[in-house]
């Protein structure tokens, strides 16, 4: 699954250089629409609740699921 989303990963090795069976990767959060298309990718630098919430709101409006007046506050 990680490869399918373009997620970099590497095996975690122990002190002797043997694989531990664990994977190391950078945290990424994906906003995926109803069709399964990736709309946004957030790294830890951009994983800000208000930014994610605004992107979800914009997506709902774009898909006709909600209107701008459905939400309190700004949708930027």
Commentary on this structure:
The strands form two sheets. A two-stranded antiparallel sheet has the order 1-2. The chain has a two-stranded antiparallel sheet with strand order 3-4. It has 76 residues and is α+β, with helices and mostly antiparallel strands. It is elongated and about 60 Å long. The two termini are 31 Å apart.
Brief summary of the model shown:
This protein has 76 residues and is an alpha+beta fold.
Main beta-sheet strand count, sense and barrel state: 2 strands, antiparallel
The strand count comes to 4
Q: How many helices does DSSP assign?
A: 1
Give the class from helix and strand content and strand pairing. alpha+beta
**What portion of the residues fall into strands of 2 or more residues?**
25-35%
Task: Give the distance, in angstroms, between the N- and C-terminal Cα atoms.
Answer: 31 Å
Task: Write down the overall mean pLDDT.
Answer: 84
Gyration radius, in Å? 18 Å
SSE sequence, one letter per element = EEEEH
What is the 3D shape?
elongated
Poorly predicted sequence stretches spanning 5 or more consecutive residues = none
């Amino acid at each position: 699954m990680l490869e399918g989303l373009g997620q970099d990963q590497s095996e975690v090795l122990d002190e002797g250089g043997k694989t531990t069976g664990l994977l190391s990767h950078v945290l990424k959060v994906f906003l995926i629409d109803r069709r399964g298309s990736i709309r946004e990718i957030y790294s830890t630098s951009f994983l800000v609740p208000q930014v994610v919430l605004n992107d979800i709101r914009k997506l709902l409006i774009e898909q006709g699921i909600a209107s701008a007046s459905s939400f309190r506050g700004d949708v930027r």
